[in-house]
Amino acid sequence: MDILLIAGLWLDGSAWDDVVPELTALGHRPVPLTLPGQGAGSAAATLDDQLAAVLAAVDAAPGKPLVVGHSAAATLAWLAADARPEKVAKVALIGGFPAADGRTYADHFAIEDGTMPFPGWDPFEGADTADLDQQTRDRIASAAVPVPEAVAKGIVRLSDERRFDVPVVVVCPEFTAAQAKEWIGAGDSPELARATDLEYVDIDSGHWPMATRPRELARVLADAAAS
């Protein structure tokens, strides 16, 4: 199966470099995406531009792909399910939950000169970064690409209720499956609360398992694809 890999804020397709060979060895075709404004195209890219790149990859897949969204890109994966409910086999969300219709995509940090630069590690201290050694922190930070303001502040638009029938697996890194179930049950993720086929998988990692647990993450994604 084609497995489309969308990394979160500040990351390009190289974030999946350690996961790709593992997925290939497990018999899948991983397709890491480098999004407009985050490693490809103009720094003036918009959220619509990023979604268009994701949909182009969905449309190019020979069958129905598994669409994987990490962190903020959980919303991009869900937008793909909304735009192509008949084409997306399943959505896997790693450490993130999709924004609801009408909400901003991910304007969580300061905008400087039209972009949202990587803010350093201080905002993420704790469970997010507990398994990141200094070398890995340096590698991620050095590769970080400022997110265009028009992406971070883009408005999420969802329109096709068939998205709720696309199977979803919530991959739980710095939080547990039990916590994710509680949050969704409490209404913290209105979109996932309406999903008809929802499963949860724990992975023992911080927020960036593609960097710290690539083999384990590949197995989780391969299992999701197989089911």
UniProtKB/TrEMBL annotation:
Molecular function via GO: hydrolase activity
Keyword annotations from UniProtKB, A to Z: Hydrolase
Superkingdom to which the source organism belongs: Bacteria
One Pfam family of this chain: Abhydrolase_6
Listed InterPro entries: AB_hydrolase_1, AB_hydrolase_fold
Domain AB hydrolase-1: 3-219
Protein name: Alpha/beta fold hydrolase
Species assigned in the record: Streptomyces heilongjiangensis
